[in-house]
Amino acid sequence: xxxxxxxxxxxxxxxxxxxxxxxxxxxxxxxxxxxxxxxxxxxxxxxxxxxxxxxxxxxxxxxxxxxxxxxxxxxxxxxxxxxxxxxxxxxxxxxxxxxxxxxxxxxxxxxxxxxxxxxxxxxxxxxxxxxxxxxxxxxxxxxxxxxxxxxxxxxxxxxxxxxxxxxxxxxxxxxxxxxxxxxxxxxxxxxxxxxxxxxxxxxxxxxxxxxxxxxxxxxxxxxxxxxxxx
Amino acid sequence: xxxxxxxxxxxxxxxxxxxxxxxxxxxxxxxxxxxxxxxxxxxxxxxxxxxxxxxxxxxxxxxxxxxxxxxxxxxxxxxxxxxxxxxxxxxxxxxxxxxxxxxxxxxxxxxxxxxxxxxxxxxxxxxxxxxxxxxxxxxxxxxxxxxxxxxxxxxxxxxxxxxxxxxxxxxxxxxxxxxxxxxxxxxxxxxxxxxxxxxxxxxxxxxxxxxxxxxxxxxxxxxxxxxxxxxxxxxxxxxxxxxxxxxxxxxxxxxxxxxxxxxxxxxxxxxxxxxxxxxxxxxxxxxx
Lengths: 230, 288
Hints:
The complex is a heterodimer of chains A (about 230) and B (about 290). Chain A has about 230 residues and is an alpha/beta fold.
């Protein structure tokens, strides 16, 4: 289980998270819902080590792992698909995946398997990653995290700006990964989709959890209220 | 005609050495977005290290490389780990200030240790040998240094294009924060790169010291030559740096033929002219 315990996070003098407690079980999908600037991305960055936090603020199966560098968290099986895809333009599609595969864990996902399952990536494997369409780039970004064979995958706005068809493709890939027992933290603008894809949800507002519960019993009116901070 | 050809070859071979000076600067700028003002002084330090090893062991300068290259690698690794990593990624100004300070310290330490007298590295027979190719005479030593330079550039370029290290370098150069997300240890990697840079500097320093007498204050001129090679070729372009070095070398040697003593001036002049018409350098991409 990956857990944060009364976690605070700061960017310089600005405090982004206030005593936020969150957890996710292996194999579970948890949605984070909240407006821009609520602290969803900060929480994810804190989990992967990209934002400095208290050491015992983040625990993995009871071991304190907070504030350790990204590569350590990656080797423990915590990976992030960053908002805006952030593929490396100087690397080809294949190289983007190879780099991550080499630094990640060994497991079911390999560069070859991803190419086999998504022929479109195999077709464009030698092109610069950013020469692809938005939907294809998002597939590569998701694959780049999957190929490190994480146990916990954090997805920050993986459908933002994509066509409905591309969104479905991205969620299809995510679905296949979840079948293998992957736990997913989902940040998604489309609240309906976020709730339908997840087991549980947290509504986050100004760095605090204001509402949480099982997604299938979520009251949309309450979630909307929490989202807009009314 | 023969004289023109000889001059051209001489310029190209000098330029290959300048290119080798510039390679390290090109790498640190390309990967770490950092300009090392002490680059030239590190070249001079390499030459003095070689001189010291030669005196202590009584060996040829080229043999001394066996000791000087590993020593400079370790120095570069530690320099990056202990000092330069503190300022990498904090914008252009902090590394400039820090390495400017380092440059002053290095010059003074060199002066204190080795006095202000000029030295040169005596390579013996090899420095005087040459051969005749259809009426054009070519020195053996410039030829060796040119071949060494081409090999180092080829190896570096291959590493960047084809290996895991190269992919890491390009990823960090594109986006350091995301590179860390895919498990790249950017700080440790920078230390290895600076180690490599100082190893190349060691090689360049020995080839330079055999060719030209040097003193503790010779660093800034070497920095300028390195810088011109890098900027002429276009930032972040390895082979661009090589071509840039060749152009500065050729301009300098032809200039010296026209008016002896004004060689370096012609090198700088060509640099200025190229920049007037192509501010991004010959092979650089225009700023987006």
